[in-house]
Amino acid sequence: MKCLCARPGLHCHNGSSSSCVYIQPSVHCLRLCPLFEVKKLGYLQLSHQLHGNQSLCYHSYHKSCGEHRDDSNEIDFHVKIPKTAFISKFRMTIDGQTYDGVVKQKEEAQQQYSQAVSRGQSAGLVSSVGRTLEDFKTSVTIAAHSKVTFELTYEELLHRRLGKYELLINAQPGQIVKDFKIDVNIYEKPGINFLEVKGSLGEKSLANAITTTRADKQAWVSFYPTHGQQMDCDGCGETGLKGDLKILYDVDRPRSQGDVTEHGGYFVHFFAPADLARIPKNVVFIIDQSGSMHGKKIAQTRGALLKILDDLAEDDYFGLILFNSNVSPWKRELLQATQTNLEMAKQFVKGITDHGATDINAAVLKGVEMIQQHPRNGSASILILLTDGDPTSGETNQGKIQSNVRKAIGKKFPLYCLGFGFDVNFEFLQKMAQENSGLARRIYEDSDAAQQLKGFYEEVATPLLTSVQINYTGATNLTQTTFSYYYNGSEIVVAGKDP
After folding, report:
1. pLDDT tens for residues 361-371?
2. pTM
3. Domains of the chain, residue spans
4. What is the pLDDT of residues 31-47, one digit of tens each?
5. What are the angstrom distances between the C-alpha of 153 and each of 60, 102, 114, 165, 296?
6. Of 179, 231, 377, 402, which residue has the fewest beta carbons closer than 10 angstroms?
């Protein structure tokens, strides 16, 4: 793993990463600046470049230039970047003099940002906004007849989900742009076998502003909206465009052992075998029905569970556990997903109501017990916890709960934690999932919450391999090489240093 450390400067990054950002040297990367807002400018040019590659991470950049004015003025720079990305470079150039920024860890960033602002200095801060994006904002005051150029680079590892990589580009310039351009260039050594463009910026009157080209190992996507299209599209007006482009693609996988690429003494191994038989699963859903789940949350949970039950295969086994201050399994044992059992389960789900406190500890331990009491050779076991709050009943010490769950599971199967809404203690759920070979996902309290729940389940619904161990002779500095499961449509990525 390479270590990328920032240089001294005024600009701060309020992310969750440490001051020394670790990157895999040969991974899918997204580096572009998808949104900015510049006030008091008569001319503005926006240019995006993206290069995703299995062998190299290329830097790309974006620049916006101010016009000459007869008085001094403050220029704002506003960018939305994916939550999973990190800023690797930010600089301002004012009348030919360049000022480099620095990426700081969260606490130090907040302190230095506040100090810089109080002194009247330029400073930038990243903060969370919405489901998938974070805001980066900064401003600078320039003298009359001066010009400022902003340049920001960020990088992101793209994760393969449901058989596709997704590049998310947000455009919201806050004004009509004279020369608005988004250019995306994707290069994949194994070859590109699928390309699709979605999102609000690719719909209706803006659809003909998009051009796509594909040729074996490369693909290009261009988005060049005219002045009129920026004015007349749905939701547009004097503030210009406001929306997203989603570029979905996948690569050829001609070799079952995956693709290995090397660069600068490092290697990366992409492993996503196809044509494997699915493994029957044992899945237990642990559902919070405490009083805080009242209203839309519990209704959407019921709707999602009904759809998920329809997707279970007949050779799957399943269990349902409801919990508040008490733990209430639907049945004492796992049941086969026969049509009769599924219909009974659906009737039970339709009757779920909300009341009481939240005993997460007892509920998860009960789920572990249910799976352990009904072992089944040749199957994959999965626990899925859905909650919207902190533990308020039974064991409430979060560290103790995490320890109890870790000891009970004993690395035998993964725990996935779904946090419903903004009030949930997501860090608690995230740590508990990561300690048990799973992951945590925030479910946003919107009209599509049921689809978010079902979408997550689809990612783990089809296990293809269990107890995956990948060995490399003589390699060092390896990332994770042991994986509980490999799921259909996903990808295992391992990086390391060549012997």
Report:
1. 999 999 999 99
2. 0.73
3. 2-251, 266-276+467-497, 281-461
4. 222 333 333 233 333 34
5. 6, 12, 23, 20, 40
6. 377
